Each structure stands twice: as structure tokens, then as C-alpha cells.
């Protein structure tokens, strides 16, 4: 299985690669004035969306027919996100609500915000792969019957905890020697496990243009998918390399297997039968 970590700008990488992607996870900086060492997070709105539109178009061109993209954004940007995908050629399948477990961001003028959106879209109307995962969340009180086979995952994801809040980050959050969060936008591994299991097959090529701490690559390689991640910040690239080189117990995807036990063909989708041999290689762009 091949996993490639590239240090550089994803737009420049996309302009010259001949890779063909099956699935992309797009988790860009949200343009909310965060301190990123190697990119501007305070662009005028038009410039920011033109930049992301160009990246979505380039990914679309490099994606196999029926391939998928999952574009994560703040809920207040839902309208821009959907337009950006549509104008770059993608067909929307679901607007997923990823409900945060921790408290809502309060507001005096509107309801408190407690979710992010993940727009799931495909190249063409028919997804090339869509594995219908089943989970078995706790039943509401007074439910008369227990479920026998769990239930299909819906477009509201309220069972995956974020890592970003101050008071809950768990073992999965990567920390500096002083105990501080290494990267405040590190995605939870389980989010990527769900996306990769649903929208790719073993050996498919998974792409992450804003790789951050490499969560997508960590999940993809364990699930025996090929993976390419691009990250502009060399310090983050070093973090990805060490994360991939020696897997921390908190980064093992195995702890999620039982949750999906009711899923048809889970052994195959999870690629448990395949040898766990991964070949890492790096490049600079
Ligand atoms: C929201 S974070 C992604 C976090 C990631 N999902 C994770 O689990 O760690 C966005 C990342 O994109 C990187 N980045 C920003 N501009 C970039 C560019 N033009 N090309 C590649 N990476 C970029 C930032 O350094 C940051 O690490």
C-alpha cells in the first residue's frame, strides 16, 4: 500500500500531478483569522472562495468518474460551499450535519451554533462506491423494540466527538512537549474512518490536499487504501511522518470496528484480510 506525504501548496501540486483520485477529504483553513505559520487565514471572502473553487475544480479534473469529495466547512458558509462545489462540476449527494458534542457557540441574535457541515458530492450523479454502513446508537427512552440489525448511518452525525474543544481532547489529540495541542484543527480519526469506509474500496486512492496532522492518511493506510496528502507547513509534515511511522494506540482504527458490526461485507470494506504492509514515501513540491 502506498502513502505519499508531500510538502507544498496543494494548488501547485494539483496543477502538475497525473494521479487519479477516488476520494478526497477537503478540510481547508476556514478563513477565520487563525494563526497558521504558512498560509493566510484572513482573505477577503471573494478571494477565499475563488481559491477554494480553483482547488475543487482541479480535484474534480483528477477524480475518477463517480469518485467522491467530502468538503468540511463552518455552517455559516453552507451557501458558499454548495455553490463552490456546483460551479466546479460536482454533484451534491448530502449536506452532512456533523453535530458537535461540546457546548454551542453562543449568540445574542441567533441560535447557538453546535455543528459543522460536510458536503458530500460526487463526479456525476452516481457514486462509484457507496457502502451503506450500519451503526447501533442508543435507543431513545421508552422505545418498545430493540433493533436487531442496528440502523443505516444518516446525514446527521452526532456520534463522533470533535477533538478541538479545550476541555475534551482525549488521547487522540497530538500534543507538544508542554502538553499543548499541536494542531487545533486535528480531525477525529473516526470521522475519516466513516468517510473512507463509505466512499472507497480497498486499494482506492484517497487524497487530502490540506493534510494537517495526517488524520486522513493514518485512517486510509490502516484501511488498506492508497493515500496522498499535501501539507504546506514543514512542521506539520514532520508530525505526519512520525505519526505514520509509529502508530500510537490512540490512532488505531480497530477500536471502531465493533461499532459497525451490523454492516454488510464489513470484513471486505475494512480490508481486514489484507496484509498490513505500508510503503511511505515523501516528496517536496
Ligand atoms: C484545517 S487544517 C486540516 C487538519 C486536518 N484535517 C487534520 O486532521 O489534521 C488545514 C491545514 O491546511 C494547511 N494548508 C493551508 N494552506 C495550504 C495549501 N495551500 N496547501 C497545502 N496545505 C495547506 C494548513 O497548514 C493546515 O495544517
CATH topology: Rossmann fold
Domains counted in the coordinates: how many? 1
Residue share in β-strands: 15-25%
Q: Report the average pLDDT across residues.
A: 91
In the predicted model, the low-confidence regions spanning at least 5 consecutive residues are none
Strand order across the biggest sheet? 8-4-5-3-2-9-10-1-11
What does this structure look like?
The protein is an alpha/beta fold and 285 residues long. The protein has one domain (2-284): Vaccinia Virus protein VP39 (Rossmann fold, 3-Layer(aba) Sandwich), CATH 3.40.50. The protein contains seven helices and eleven strands. The chain has helices spanning 10-16, 45-61, 78-87, 189-199, 215-222, 234-245, 266-270; strands at 2-7, 21-26, 63-74, 91-99, 115-122, 134-135, 151-152, 156-157, 205-208, 226-231, 279-284. It has a nine-stranded mixed beta sheet with strand order 8-4-5-3-2-9-10-1-11, with helices on both faces. Strands 6-7 form a two-stranded antiparallel ribbon. Strand 9, helix 5 and strand 10 (226-231) form a beta-alpha-beta unit. The relative contact order is 0.21. Residues 9-10, 27-29, 36, 38-39, 183, 185-187, 209-210, 212-213, 215, 230-233, 236 line the site of S-adenosylmethionine.
Amino acid at each position: 500500500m502506498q502513502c505519499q506525504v508531500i510538502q507544498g501548496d496543494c494548488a501547485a501540486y494539483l496543477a502538475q500531478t497525473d494521479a487519479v483520485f477516488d476520494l478526497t477529504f477537503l478540510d481547508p483553513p476556514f478563513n477565520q483569522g487563525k494563526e497558521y505559520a504558512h498560509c493566510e487565514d484572513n482573505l477577503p471572502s471573494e478571494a477565499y472562495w475563488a481559491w477554494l473553487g480553483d482547488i475543487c475544480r482541479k480535484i474534480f479534473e483528477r477524480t475518477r468518474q463517480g469518485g467522491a469529495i467530502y468538503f468540511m466547512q463552518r455552517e455559516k458558509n453552507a451557501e458558499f460551499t454548495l455553490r463552490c462545489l456546483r460551479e466546479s462540476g460536482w454533484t451534491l449527494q448530502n449536506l452532512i450535519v456533523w453535530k458537535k458534542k461540546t457546548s454551542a457557540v453562543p449568540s445574542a441574535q441567533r441560535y447557538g451554533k453546535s455543528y459543522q457541515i460536510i458536503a458530500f458530492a460526487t463526479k456525476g450523479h452516481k457514486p462509484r462506491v457507496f457502502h451503506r454502513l450500519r451503526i447501533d446508537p442508543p435507543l431513545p427512552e421508552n422505545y418498545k423494540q430493540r433493533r436487531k440489525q442496528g440502523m443505516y448511518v444518516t446525514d446527521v452525525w452526532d456520534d463522533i466527538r470533535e477533538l478541538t474543544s479545550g476541555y475534551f481532547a482525549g488521547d487522540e489529540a497530538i500534543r507538544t512537549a508542554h502538553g499543548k495541542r499541536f494542531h487545533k484543527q486535528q480531525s477525529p480519526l473516526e470521522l475519516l474512518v466513516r468517510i473512507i469506509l463509505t466512499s472507497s474500496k480497498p486499494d482506492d486512492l484517497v487524497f487530502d490536499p490540506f493534510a494537517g496532522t495526517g488524520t486522513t492518511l493514518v485512517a486510509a493506510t490502516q484501511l488498506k487504501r492508497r493515500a496522498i496528502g499535501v501539507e504546506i507547513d514543514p512542521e506539520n509534515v514532520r508530525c505526519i511522518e512520525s505519526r505514520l511511522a509509529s502508530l500510537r494506540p490512540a490512532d488505531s482504527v480497530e477500536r471502531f470496528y465493533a461499532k459497525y458490526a451490523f454492516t454488510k461485507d464489513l470484513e471486505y470494506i475494512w480490508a481486514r484480510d489484507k496484509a498490513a504492509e505500508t510503503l511511505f514515501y515523501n516528496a517536496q513540491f
